[in-house]
Amino acid sequence: MKSRESNNSCLEKEIVKLVCRKYDVLEEDVFSTKRNAELSLVRKIIMYLCSRFTEMSIKDISIFMGNKDYTTVMFGISGIKSLMTRDDRLEITVRMLEFELFCFLDGLTCVGINESS
Fold first, then answer.
1. CA 105 to chain centre
2. CA-CA-CA-CA torsion sign (6, 7, 9, 13)
3. How many Å apart are CA 108 and CA 104, to the nearest integer?
4. Which of 60, 76, 77, 115 could form a disulfide with 44 if both were Cys (CB 3.0 to 4.6 A apart)?
């Protein structure tokens, strides 16, 4: 599902903001060289959502994510897809983030989505 607002960096920034808020991580940490499981998961979710909601190519996403290797992005996206089939909690979290992005695209405010973890 591609965004109606193609080539708009506003959407990519909103994706980063939403995911970072959900996982309580700093946006600058997403683009840092820090390596831990939580940041890795956050990065992969951001890559996945960018692939679903924007017109960005894998190469564009790799550049947006701080010049990550092309294959890192491919494996990140496929990894989240695979994890979501095995982890109901992750799937629910990602679906809630997708709902918030739909609201953002429609200019609506979603209340209470990030209330529960």
1. 15
2. positive
3. 6
4. 76
- The secondary structure of residue 54, as a DSSP letter, is S
**Secondary structure (DSSP) of 62-114:** HHHTTS--HHHHHHHHHHHHHHHHH-HHHHHHHHHHHHHHHHHHHT----STT
Q: For the chain, what's the residue count?
A: 117
Domains along the chain?
9-106 (1.10.1750.10)
- Where does the pLDDT of residue 46 fall: very low under 50, low under 70, confident under 90, or very high at 90 and above? very high
Q: Which residue has the tokens 């695209």?
A: 105
Residue 3: CB partners within 8 Å, gap ≥ 6? 11, 53, 54, 55, 105
Q: What is the pLDDT of residues 24-34, one digit of tens each?
A: 999 999 999 89
